[in-house]
Write a structure and sequence with these properties.
Layout lengths: L2 H21 L5 H5 L8 E4 L2 E3 L7 E2 L1 E5 L2 E6 L1 H5 L7 E4 L4 E4 L1 E6 L1 H7 L3 E2 L6 H13 L7 E6 L13 H6 L5 E5 L4 E4 L1 H7 L11 E5 L6 E7 L2 H5 L7 H17 L2 E9 L1 H12 L6 E7 L8 H12 L2 E3 H4 L1 E9 L29 H13 L3 E5 L3 H17 L9 E3 L11 H4 L3 E4 L1 H7 L3 H9 L6 H6 L4 E3 L10 H10 L19 H7 L2 H5 L18 E4 L8 H4 L4 E6 L2 E4 L7
Parallel strand pairs: 1-6, 2-7, 8-15, 9-10, 10-11, 15-16, 16-18, 18-19, 19-20, 20-21, 21-22
Antiparallel strand pairs: 1-4, 2-3, 4-5, 7-23, 11-12, 12-14, 13-14, 23-24, 24-25
Helix pairs in contact: 4-9, 9-10, 13-14, 16-19
The structure holds zinc ion.
Zinc ion (ZN) binds next to loops.
C-alpha cells in the first residue's frame, strides 16, 4: 500500500467518522428516523455522482433509508450501511444526478396532450388538416377533436392558418387546435357555431379574434383572452379524465428523469385529484402546485379557491412530501410567437401592435396583495418588457407596504424580455427568475425579427441575470416544449438547436455553464419552492430522489447530452422508473 493510498484511506475513515458523528446530532432529520448504524434500504455504489452540494460536489456511493439519504461518500464508507436486506446497486461508473425538477410545467395539459393529436413535428398546415381528417373517421359525430402544437413560424407561409380547409374535413365534429405556446388556437366552423361566434362578435379585452381583412369574418384563430369564447363551450374534463391525465404525466416525467414539477397554474379540482391519487398510493411523484388566478380577485371561483387555502394556511409536504400548495400563479400577458406579449414599444415586425396585458396592473396587484398578505408566494407569467415592468412595479409596491414580502420568494415566470433598466431590479426586489432554456432555442429563429437588434439583448438573458445574483429556476413550460430536462440543460449551455445551429450559439454571451444549468434544474428549482433543505442535492437528510444517466452529462460533448438516456429514476429511495438488476 502506497503512502497516497494510506492517506486516502485515512481521509475516508475520518470522513466516515465526521458523517457518523454529524448524523448522530439531534438536529439532523436522519437521526430521528434511523440511527447511524441502521442498515440502508438501498445503496448505489461505484457511481459517478454529481451531488450539487458545494461542500462535497462529487461522490462514489449514496445510501438511503426510510426515503431519505443516509450516507453520501466513498464506496468504502457505504459498506458500513450494508445490512442483510439492503439492496445494493452497482452503477458500474454510471452518472447520477439529483432528481431533476421542472420549475414550470403544466402537468394535466401534458397528460392530455399525450392523448391528443400532436402537431409538434408537422411543417405545414396541410399535414395538420390530414391528421384531423383521419381522426374524424375514428371519432363519434359531434364529439370534440382537440390537438396541440402547431406553429406557423415553422411553415413555408409563416402566416396564421384559416379554418376553411379544416372545416371541410370536419363538418360535424367541432375542432380546437392549440398553438404551440398555448396562447392562440384554431377553431373550425362547427366549433365557432357552437360558441356563437360571428363577424359581429367583438374582441374581448386582452384578446383578439383574427379576421379576414376583406370580409371581416373570423378566420378561426383566437388569441389569448379570445380563446375562452370557444373554450367555454368545450365540455370540462371529468374527474376520471383528470386522473388519467395525471397518471400519464407522471409516467412521462419519471421516464425523463424528473421527480418534481412546479405545476404552473391549477385548480382546486385538480389538487383534489392529486390528493386522491396520493392517498391511494398511486402518485410516485412530487408536485409543487400553484393556484391559478383568474377573473375577479374577490368573487371568482379562483378567488374562492385561494381564500380556502389562505384560511387553511399553506399545504406543505402533503402525503410524505408529495404535494405542496403555497403559491399563486398570475398570467399577465400573452406570448411572443403570437405577438401577444406586452411590449413597451411596438413589435419590430408588426409596427401597429405592442401586444397586450391579459390581466390589468390593478388586478395583478389585488391578487398578489391578497396572496402575499396570507403568506403565499406569487409567481407571475411575464414575457414582454412591459409585462415584466408591471410585475416589478407591483412587487416594489408590495414590498414597500409589507417588508415580509421580500421573504416570500416571489417569482417572475419566464422573465423573457427585460428592458435594460429593469434587469437589475430582479435582484433588488428579491425575485427568482423562473426561465425555460428551450424557449430560447425554439424562439431564437424569429426573436430578433419580433424585437429588433436592441431589445433582443434583454431577451433570454440568463448570464446577465445570473450576474446580478438572481437565481434561475429551470423549467420547460411543457407541453409548450418537451419536458425532457436534458434538452433544457443542452439548450442552456449551447443556445443551439438540436442540429447545432447556429454555430457557437445564439447570443453566446448569455450561455449558462454546466454547473449553473444543473443547479437551475435541481437546487435552485428547489429553492424557488422553499424546498432547498429537503430536495435539489444529494446530501444526508434530504429526500432520496436521484437519476441514473447513461452518460456523463457534465463532461461529454454537448450534442451527446441529447443522446443521453435516463436509465433509472429513484423517488424517496424507491425505483420508480427503470429496471432493477439492469446492471447485474
Ligand atoms: Zn406556462
Amino acid at each position: 500500500m502506497t503512502i497516497s493510498r494510506l492517506l486516502s484511506l485515512a481521509i475516508t475513515l475520518s470522513f466516515v467518522f465526521i458523517v457518523l458523528s454529524w448524523s448522530a446530532s439531534p438536529k439532523d432529520p436522519v437521526s430521528k428516523s434511523a440511527s447511524p448504524q441502521a442498515p440502508a434500504d438501498l445503496i448505489l455504489m461505484n457511481g459517478n455522482i454529481y451531488t450539487v452540494n458545494s461542500h462535497m460536489p462529487h461522490a462514489e456511493a449514496v445510501a438511503a433509508r426510510g426515503g431519505l439519504i443516509s450516507y453520501v461518500g466513498s464506496n468504502a464508507g457505504a459498506q458500513a450501511f450494508k445490512g442483510p436486506s439492503t439492496e445494493v446497486v452497482d452503477l458500474e461508473g454510471k452518472t447520477v444526478v439529483p432528481g431533476l425538477i421542472d420549475a414550470h410545467g403544466h402537468f394535466i395539459n401534458l397528460g392530455e396532450s399525450l392523448q391528443r393529436l400532436s402537431f409538434v413535428d408537422t411543417r405545414s398546415y396541410e399535414e395538420i388538416v390530414s391528421m384531423v381528417r383521419k381522426k374524424v373517421e375514428a371519432t363519434p359525430v359531434n364529439e370534440w377533436i382537440q390537438g396541440r402544437g402547431w406553429d406557423q413560424t415553422r411553415w413555408a407561409t409563416k402566416e396564421f392558418p384559416d379554418h376553411h380547409a379544416l372545416s371541410r374535413v370536419s363538418p360535424n365534429n367541432p375542432v380546437w387546435l392549440t398553438r404551440v405556446d398555448g396562447h392562440a388556437a384554431l377553431a373550425n366552423a362547427a366549433a365557432m357555431k357552437l360558441a356563437g361566434i360571428t363577424a359581429t362578435t367583438k374582441d374581448p379585452d386582452g384578446g383578439k379574434i383574427v379576421r379576414d381583412p376583406k370580409t371581416g369574418e373570423p378566420t378561426g384563430v383566437f388569441i389569448d383572452n379570445a380563446k375562452s369564447l370557444v373554450e367555454k363551450v368545450i365540455p370540462p374534463l371529468t374527474r376520471d379524465q383528470i386522473k388519467r391525465a395525471a397518471t400519464l404525466a407522471i409516467q412521462k416525467c419519471l421516464q425523463d428523469g424528473l421527480t418534481e414539477v412546479h405545476d404552473a397554474g391549477t385548480s382546486a379540482e385538480v389538487i383534489d385529484v392529486y390528493k386522491d391519487l396520493i392517498d391511494a398510493g398511486k402518485f410516485d411523484f412530487r408536485i409543487y402546485a400553484m393556484i391559478m388566478a383568474s377573473g375577479d380577485p374577490v368573487k371568482s371561483p379562483a378567488a374562492h379557491t385561494l381564500d380556502a387555502y389562505l384560511k387553511a394556511g399553506p399545504l406543505v409536504g402533503y402525503g410524505n412530501n408529495h404535494l405542496t400548495v403555497r403559491s399563486l400563479k398570475i398570467v399577465s400577458d400573452g406570448a411572443m410567437g403570437s405577438r401577444g406579449a406586452a411590449m413597451l414599444q411596438p413589435y419590430s415586425d408588426d409596427p401597429g401592435n405592442s401586444g397586450w396585458m391579459v390581466m390589468s396592473k390593478n388586478l395583478i396587484y389585488e391578487w398578489a396583495k391578497k396572496a402575499t398578505d396570507g403568506g403565499f408566494q406569487v409567481n407571475t407569467h411575464a414575457i414582454g418588457d412591459r409585462a415584466n415592468r408591471v410585475w416589478l412595479d407591483v412587487v416594489e409596491q408590495l414590498e414597500k407596504e409589507n417588508p415580509k414580502v421580500k421573504d416570500l420568494r416571489l417569482r417572475d415566470e419566464h422573465a423573457q424580455v427585460l428592458s435594460p433598466t429593469d434587469l437589475p431590479r430582479l435582484a433588488e426586489l428579491h425575485i427568482i427568475a423562473s426561465m425555460q432554456p428551450t424557449h430560447c432555442t425554439s424562439d431564437m429563429r424569429w426573436a430578433e425579427q419580433r424585437l429588433g437588434p436592441q431589445r433582443v439583448r434583454g431577451a433570454y438573458a440568463w448570464r446577465s441575470i445570473l450576474r446580478t445574483g438572481v437565481r434561475i429556476a429551470g423549467g420547460s413550460d411543457f407541453p409548450v416544449e418537451d419536458p425532457n430536462p436534458l434538452w433544457g440543460i443542452y439548450s442552456a449551455i449551447t443556445r443551439q438547436d438540436h442540429s447545432g445551429w447556429p454555430t457557437g450559439g445564439w447570443m453566446p454571451q448569455e450561455k449558462m455553464t454546466r454547473d449553473e444549468a444543473l443547479r437551475a434544474f435541481t437546487l435552485d428549482a428547489a429553492y424557488a419552492a422553499f424546498e432547498e433543505k429537503i430536495k435539489g442535492s444529494i446530501e444526508v437528510g434530504k429526500l432520496a430522489d436521484f437519476v441514473v444517466l447513461s452518460q456523463d452529462i457534465m463532461k461529454i460533448e454537448p450534442a451527446q447530452i441529447l443522446r443521453t438516456e435516463v436509465e433509472k429514476t429513484f423517488l424517496g429511495g424507491k425505483l420508480v422508473f427503470g429496471k432493477v438488476g439492469q446492471f447485474h
